[in-house]
Amino acid sequence: MTHAPHDSNSATVFKVETPKTPPSNKIRAAKWLVLFVVIGGTLFVSAAGATYAYTRDRILPNVTIAGMKVNGLDRIAATELLQSQFNTMVDAGVEVTLFDETKHLDLRTNVATDPDLVYQLIDWDVNMSVDEALKVGRTGNQLRDFFAPLYHLTLAPTHLTPHYVLAETRLSSALRDLYPNVESIGTPTDFVFVGSGENMSVTVTEAVAGAIIDTDQALTDLMHDAENLGLEALELRLIERSAIINKTEAEVLIPAAIAAIEHAPYELTFTPEYGDDLTYPITANDLKIWLVPSKNANGEAILTVDPESMESFLTEVHADIDIAPQDAKFVVEGDRVIEFSESHDGFIINDDQVLDDVTAALGTDNTSIVISAERTAPAVPTASANDLGIKEVLGVGFSSYAGSPANRRANIKHGADKLNGVLIAPGDTLSLLERLRPFTVADGYLPELVIKGDEIIPEVGGGLCQIGTTTFRAAMNSGLEIAERRNHSLVVSYYNDPSNGQPGTDATIYDPSPDLKITNDTGHYIMLITTVDAAKSQLTFTFWGTSDGRQGSYTPPKVLSWTGYGAPVEKETTSLKPGVRQCQAPHPGATTTFDYNIIQPDGTTKTREFFSSYRSLPSICLVGVGSTSAPPAAEVQGVSDEPISD
Questions:
Q1: pLDDT, tens digit, for every residue of 240-270?
Q2: Is the N or the C terminus of the chain less surrounded, counting Cβ atoms within 10 Å?
Q3: Where are the domains of the chain?
């Protein structure tokens, strides 16, 4: 306190000074916290920005495919890394053991006179696997995607499984081919009919157990290995095929079997829409072959017919009755579309129902059995065909098949004819495999030669990828939605793009997969017209419809990288004369890209980038070795010293 100077005439004044209080600990802490948050936030945003910039076109941190690190890689590097790993596994194959006998299962692409018949027993989809890795952390939300790289770097590892296709039927067959003498079919419990009429006697034979390779378990093991990018040695085992019903249980059915024979003949009948009724008698002798003892779902003994024994009989019935539904079709004359084929319903026999109906009639007076057939209506009936609005060209696709052998050319023509005039309703998806099936000689396809193991065998289906490639290009030039597409496994000259002669715009189809699927998103019906110019060896496919103003196109394919095909591989065979060589040319691997652009009616452009990865394949030669049973080379159609594929 300070005293003012004394003045007798004035009052005393007191001045109070407030002492300075030091800042409290809470205030200091708050200031430091704000400073820390500002600096930390700045550093975090800077780190996030730097990580985002680095990974803009790369796979985000902490992303693996089956344990393989792909983080930080761009598309090309990731594609080449995965393709190299896949090639290594396919080239190495799998060691298979059964009863201490080890064999080698070759997974490599087979060799064929037509590259469309080339396949792998396990085929990894490189492009789909890389696409999935690149999509991690990319949601389309700008703020979330900005921080995603840092988030995945510090907190969220992502482990992906590679995409692959197992050729299950061919794999099972290949495994059995390794050990052709270990399986035994066995015999089921069965009836034995002796004599006929009143002199007929019926006895039952006891089943003999068989044994088969457990291919289901083998396929499960291979799937696990394929997902983990490591093909381990495969241990096979045999499983016993036990009888469904034993002898004692089956003997109870002898009276029912006798009654079924006594009521024969039975008669299958069918009334078509046009023409006379069809009848198919089932005689007592037929039943003596078909009847088998079995059990129902409740474990009760029942008399039934064996579907396998009845197969040839039903094949004849199918040939007479089955017919696919036919849409109304058109051809183009100048700038007009005219009808050339009316629609009709389809019919297909329901085998399961026929077998049930025959079984139910056994031993009864109901000896006339109506064949159960399912009716399928066409998607486009003739009555509505004139209102489809098909009036203009949407787009055209081309491909050349120059140099193709005779059977391949015939298959291309047959497949194109099956597609000509096909209509696709608004919103529907065209599946080429569905439209081109069945792939049989009876349907009109011709076989090509395939090297399977150390044998040369015929296989049907050559030329299909030529159909797929031409359709794919026509669909893109029409601006249509590509629902499913897979490139061929090899670089093949037939499919080099007409614009620059480079690979990348092909589409493979191989029953049962992969497929080419085109979705009609135009809002109107579209029609595919196929033209085959045999003289020029050229396909021209045209989509017709009603344009909504869109314009489709694709850029010339660009090869991003090439890979070598390695040293030649030789296999000995007794299918050729000693010293004769049958070779398939080598194929280099490649990674390619092109852009599919659609200019929308509002002027905006929608772009989809297609990447294709082709595996390398060394030259594979069969070399003839001595055998007294080997046929002369001249007797094996198409075999020569020249390469058998492009």
A1: 888 889 999 999 999 999 999 999 999 999 9
A2: N
A3: 25-90+126-161, 388-635
Average pLDDT over residues 180-184: 90
| Residue range 8-45, pLDDT digits in tens | 444 455 555 555 555 666 676 666 666 666 565 555 45
The enclosing H or E element of 422 equals: strand 422-424
**Six-digit token pair at 521?**
């998103």
Strands (E) across 425-537 are located at: 429-431, 447-452, 455-460, 481-484, 517-519, 526-533
Q: Token match 């289906």: residue?
A: 461
Hey, which residues does 134 pair with through a beta bridge?
Answer: none
Neighbours of 467 (CB within 10 A): 28
Taking every pair of Cα atoms in the chain, the longest distance, rounded to a whole number of angstroms, is 161
Indicate the length of the chain as a whole number: 646
Q: What is the DSSP string of 531-547?
A: EEETTTTEEEEEEEE--
Determine the Cα–Cα distance for residues 337 and 328; give it in Å rounded to an integer.
Answer: 12
**Taking the CA atoms of the chain, what radius of gyration do you get in angstroms?**
36
Give 388's DSSP letter: S
Residues 580-629: tens digit of each pLDDT: 887 778 889 999 999 999 999 999 999 999 999 998 888 888 888 875 44
| Sheet strands (E) in 206-277 | 210-213, 234-235, 238-241, 266-270
Phi, psi (5° rounding) for residue 402? -55, 135
Q: Quick: pLDDT tens for 377-396.
A: 877 776 665 567 787 899 99
The Cα 464–Cα 472 span in angstroms is 12
Partners of 190 in beta bridges? 205
Q: Answer whether the bond into residue 265 is a cis peptide, omega within 30°.
A: yes
pTM: 0.72
3-class DSSP assignment, residue 50: helix
β-partners of residue 165 are 123
Which tens digits make up the pLDDT trace of 101-151?
Answer: 999 998 876 666 677 777 788 989 999 999 999 988 777 666 555 555 555
Q: With CA atoms as reference, report the closest residue to 616 among 451, 465, 487, 491.
A: 491
Alpha helices, DSSP H only, in 155-186? 168-178
CA–CA distance, 388 with 373 (Å, rounded to integer): 30
Give the pLDDT confidence score for residue 197 in this predicted structure. 85
CA dist list (Å): 623 to 43, 112, 566: 68, 16, 19
